[in-house]
Amino acid sequence: MSFGDGAQGALGLPDPEMGPGGDAYEPTRVSGLPSDITSISAGHYHSLAIDSRGGLWAWGRNQEGQLGRDPLASRDSWNNPKRVEGLDHVNVCAAFASGVTSAAIGDDGSVWVWGKSKRGQLGLGRGITEAVIPRRVDALAGEKIVKVCS
Asked: Where are the domains of the chain?
């Protein structure tokens, strides 16, 4: 369920359901998500949801690639929850949605990041400011990470 500011598709609700302002004033079911969601992380304009099988779903603003899908995809599709591309082989156990970045932790402790970074928020090394699909943070390989945030 989601409610509040629906700008940029952040609520995951179809436009007709949200009305002219794009806001939802009561909890409303997010269609398109599996029924076995175990965890949610809400960022500024996008959200992430983990299902019981470790699949990660995203919806909302994608201007900076924080949904883990093609940032050139139609803006009309941003509010539709979709599986995050590039994590098919990862059993996600935790996720974090920030402003323009997203992160996930695999059950093996691996950390995956995507979105845009101006000052190293992705942790992928100097000069890497964007990841359209999730990339593993190699500098943390061998560590057992249990939580991530920014």
From this structure: 32-140
**Helix-strand-coil percent breakdown of the chain, rounded to 5?**
10, 35, 55
Query: Is the CB of residue 103 less than 8 Å from the CB of residue 123?
Result: no
pLDDT in tens, 3-56: 888 888 888 887 655 444 478 899 988 889 999 999 999 988 899 999 999 999
- Four-way CATH pick for 32-140: 2.130.10.30, 3.80.10.10, 2.30.170.40, 3.40.50.970: 2.130.10.30
Q: Are 47 and 60 in contact, with CB atoms under 8 Å apart?
A: yes
147: which residues sit within 8 A by CB, 6+ positions away?
94, 105
pLDDT tens column, 19-31? 444 788 999 888 8
